[in-house]
Design a protein that fits this description.
single chain; 265 residues; mainly alpha; 82% helix; globular
């Protein structure tokens, strides 16, 4: 329970941090707004032409007697739009982070500098960082999709499927959201995806406390736009407390500096 509260605390600290740095917050809204416009345009197109797409893909229903053909196609159209909305919710964070990589990298670096005086750097060119981010996001989405299929199937269980499973779904989504958001700071520190997952699994309560409230809030993409910068800042603050006090190389350097001249370490 303590870790759950601590995770939520990091989320609130991140929101306060960006609120106190208004200029950085304003620029960090752009990626979310761009993603929101793109998703809204796609959903509007689906709403306008979705029925035509279903009609085209179900020619076998042309000869069905009324009203069965219309009901069947109407049901498929509703399912198609519902799946599109679900996909939009699941992918919004990953796509926003990918589009906003330079913005969120800069924001994360500013948090590191403000809190510790310096910001770790990966030393990789921007195109390489974008490639790693896209690759890792795809891997996370595959994992999240597998969990989604499992939870969807369990949702048909009487009582449990309507009570326990939705709550479990928010915790699972929250864990993956936390991974995506902490990746901004951890990738700069050279931490690979497998190590990031192992780190968060060792502190599941922390990840759930941070990500589960976001999972609920991100059901409304407009809310996600305004919370995303603070979520990135909060994730960076969390990473700073989870990482070792100093990288191995820096610790070795400090030890070398403390070794008296003329002696061997």
């Amino acid at each position: 329970m303590r870790d759950l509260g601590a995770g939520f605390g990091y989320l609130m600290k991140g929101q306060r941090w960006v609120a106190q740095h208004g200029k950085k917050y304003g620029w960090s809204l752009l990626p979310g707004l761009i993603t929101l416009v793109l998703y809204a345009a796609a959903l509007v197109c689906l709403a306008v032409w979705g029925a035509d797409l279903v009609d085209w893909s179900t020619p076998f229903a042309d000869d069905w007697s009324s009203p069965w053909g219309g009901l069947f196609r109407g049901f498929l159209t509703a399912v198609l739009f519902a799946l599109a909305l679900l996909l939009a919710v699941l992918t919004f964070t990953a796509v926003t982070l990918l589009i906003g990589q330079p913005f969120y990298e800069s924001l994360s670096e500013q948090v590191d500098i403000a809190e510790g005086g310096h910001a770790p750097e990966s030393g990789l060119p921007l195109w390489r960082e974008l490639w790693i981010s896209a690759r890792d996001s795809l891997r996370i989405l595959v994992r999240a999709a597998l969990w989604g299929i499992l939870l969807f199937a369990l949702g048909f269980l009487p009582f449990v499927g309507q009570t326990v499973i939705p709550v479990l779904g928010f915790f699972v989504t929250g864990f993956f959201l936390t991974e995506e958001l902490t990746a901004v700071a951890l990738q700069r520190r050279g931490v690979e995806l497998r190590e990031r997952l192992a780190l968060l699994r060792s502190r599941k309560g922390l990840a759930w406390g941070f990500g589960a409230p976001l999972a609920v809030a991100f059901l409304v993409p407009v809310v996600a736009v305004f919370l995303m910068p603070g979520a990135v800042a909060g994730a960076t603050l969390m990473v700073r407390d989870l990482e070792p006090a100093a990288p191995d190389a820096e610790r070795e350097g400090d030890q070398a500096d403390e070794t008296p001249q003329g002696t061997s370490a």
